[in-house]
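Researcher: Hi, I'm a grad student and pretty new to this. My advisor asked me to get structures for two proteins we've been looking at. I'm not sure of the right format, so I'll just paste the first sequence and hope you can take it from there.
Model: That works fine. Here's the first sequence with its C-alpha cells right after it:
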Amino acid sequence: MNLQSPFSSTHSFNYEHEWKYDVFLSFRGKDTRYGFTSNLYEALSRKGINTFFDDDGIQSGDEITPTLVKSIEESRIAIIVLSPDYASSSFCLDELSHILHCIKRNNRLVVPVFYDVDPCDVRHQINRFGEAMAKHEQRFKNDLNKVQKWRDALHEVANLSGYHFKHGKGYEHRFIGNIVDNISKRITRRPALHVADHPTGLQSRVSKVASLLDVESNAGVHMVGIYGIGGIGKTTLAAAVYNFITDHFEGACFLENVRENSSRHGSVHLQNILLSEILEKEIKLGSVKKGTSEIQKRLCQKKVLLVLDDVDDPEQLKAIA
C-alpha cells in the first residue's frame, strides 16, 4: 500500500480530522435514490451521523461539479452504493475515481455496498458491469485512458471490505442497521488528538508509518516502533498517525506517558485504561497477569489500534500489547 504519492498542493493534510461531513454517499440516482440510499441516509441521520446526500440534483451532466468535489474532500468516510446500473453512469465512475484518489489514498475509509450486485461482477467487470464498460469504450474510444481509469477504480473498490445485500436473502432494514452501527462506532469513538499548533514536516512520516502498519489488512498483528532522543517529535508523530488511521479500526486507544504512569501506578492501571476505552465500559483488574489474560481474551477478535507513548521497558509491552 503506497501512501506516499497521493498528496498534492491541492489537498490539505488534516491531522486533527475536522470534517464537514462524517459520510459522503455515492450512488446512482436512478437505481436507489428513492429506495435503499434514501433509507440509508435517513438511518445515518437519525444516528446523528452528518451525511452528504445529493438530493438537490447536483448530479447533472457527465462530469462531477466543484461542489461535489469539495464535499468529497471534506468527508471523513465514503460509502459507495454499487447497484446494478452504477457503472452505466460516467458521472458515477468519475465520482468513484475521485473518492478513491481523495479519500482512500489519504487513508480515510471507503466502504462499498454491493446492492443486489455480485462483487465479482464489479471486480472483473462482467455481466451488467461488463456491458456498461463496453459501451463506455465505444463512447470514449478517443479517450480509452479515461475508461481504463474507471476500470481500475471498479476493480479497486471491489477488493475493499464492505457489505453485500441480495434481495430475498435478508431484511433490508437490518442490513442498513448493520452498516449504520458500524459507521457510528468508527466516528463516535472519541475526539481527535491534538497534534501540534503548527505541524510541519509530518506528511511523509505519517504516510510511511501508516504504510508499515498496513491498516487495510485483517490478518495478524502489525507493530511499529518509533524511537530517538527526546524532543524530536515522536509523540507528535504518533498522535498524527493515530488520527490519520483510527477510522479503520473497531477499537482504538492512545496510552500517554507509559513510562511515568507505569512507574507511579503500575501496569495494571494502564491495562484498565486500555480495556475501558476500547470496550467502552469501566474495567477493574486485580493483577497484571489477569489484565494480560483479559486483553488477549476480549480483544483477540477485534481490529484494534493501540499507541503506547514513551515506553522504556519491554515488560510494559508484554503487559499491555
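Researcher: Oh nice, that was easy. Here's the second one.
Model: And its structure:
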Amino acid sequence: MKRRAAINRTIVVVDVEGFGDYTRIRPSQLIVRETMYRAVRKGLRAAGVHWFRCHHVDRGDGVFILAPTLTDKVRLVEALPAALAKALRRHNSRHPPEERIRLRLAMHAGEIARDEHGVTGNSINLTFRLADAPELKKAFRESPGVLAVITSEWFYDEVVRHSSVADSYRRVPVNVKETSTSGWMHLLNSPDESGHVARRIRLRQRVLTWSSLTRRP
C-alpha cells in the first residue's frame, strides 16, 4: 500500500448530552439532530470556516469534524462556542424539554492520516477521549448552561492561551480508557457570555488591524 503523508488538521467533536434519553422519541431525536447541525454550521461560519470545506462524519448523537488546514484556530475557539451557545439557547427557549439540546464540544489539533476508509490518528482518539472525560460530564450535569467546551493541553497552550477567552478555562483531569492526561474546560453558563465574547473579539480585531497599519512603511 502506498504511504500517504499525514496532515495537521484542527479537530472538533460535538456530542449531544442525553441523546438516547427515553423521553426522546424518534421525531424529537430528528429535531435535535437537525438543530445540532444547523447550530454547528452557523458556529463554524461565525469562525470563518465553511462547512463544505470540512471533513465531517455523522456520529448519530453528534458529529466529528476536521476543519480546513488553514483554519484560524484562535478565531475558531473564540467564535464557535459563543455562536453555538447562542443558537442553542434560542432553540431551547422555543421547544419542549425532549427537544432541547445541550452539547459537549471538544477541540484539538494534530497529524491526521487518510486512507480509502476514512481518517485516523492519535489526535482524533484524544479528542474523543476529551469529550468523554468524566470530570467534564459531571461539571456539565451540575451546570445550568447549554454548552461545555474542553480542549487538549496542547490546544490550550498554543491557541486558547492567546485568545480573548483564555480566562474562562480551567484545567481538569482526563482519565478515559487508556488515556490519562489533562484538558482545559469552559462551561458557557451565562446568556450574557456570547455578547461579552463578541465584544472582546471585535476589540482584538481592531487591535490587530491597528497593529498591522502601524507596521506599514
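Researcher: Is there anything I should tell my advisor about the second?
Model: You could mention this: The chain has a mean pLDDT of 89.
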